[in-house]
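Hi there, hope your week has been kind to you so far. Do you reckon you could talk me through the fold, stretch by stretch? Thanks so much in advance, here it is.
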Amino acid sequence: MSPIHVRARPEDVAPIVFLVGDPGRAHLAASKLEGARLYNDFRGLVGYTGRYEGVEVSCQTTGMGGPSAAIVCEELADLGAKVLIRLGTCGGTRADIRPNDLVIVTAACPLDGTSREYVGGDPYAPTATFRVVRALVEAAERLGAPHHVGPVATEDALYLVQEGYVEKWARRGVLAQEMEASAVFTVAALRGLEAGCALTISNPAGQHQRLPDDELAVGIERMIQVGLEAAVTLSRSV
């Protein structure tokens, strides 16, 4: 049966897939690929496949939040994807985590409803695959990209701000707040896929004044390049 939302065939999708919330980011990633071809745009879930340094990769839009991301991950699994890497934005929890820095995610605190539904409310720790984390870190180091490595918190309510909430999670070692990583890691684990996540800091967590688009574009471009370099490493044993 063909997927409902990612209307593609297995041969359309590469083994390594970047997941982005914004269709514009999918177009940007595609501009860096040789022979990029559009395989889906249904419901704005834009997806491209092309090659970077000879390695076939896809970039697939997920929309915002865990439910949409989980749907896309499930359908990519059905289409034969092997490695899912979220490339997104987030809010940093500490003063030393600056706008446009990169956060390479090791695990996600599952504060979202999607992850909870998947495991029936059981205690669960959604984590990235070590091999993917290592490839992302090594790529960031090679490119000189300012980065931090550690856990994030995945949440549902972007505009809900609670006094002391950001500080509480920062004390627990959480580097940033975002909306999809936990769902991506959970679905990947249940479907036997590898997963990772790299995020660009767009604002301090709990504050909604983001970097201007032209300034944030610098960090987004760097993040995509880190992802592409990591994909080359990962392709050697997919």
About this structure: The beta strands are 16-20, 34-40, 47-52, 55-61, 83-92, 102-110, 147-154, 176-178, 194-204. DSSP finds seven helices and nine strands in the chain. Helices lie at 23-30, 66-78, 113-118, 130-143, 165-171, 181-191, 213-234. The longest strand covers residues 194-204.
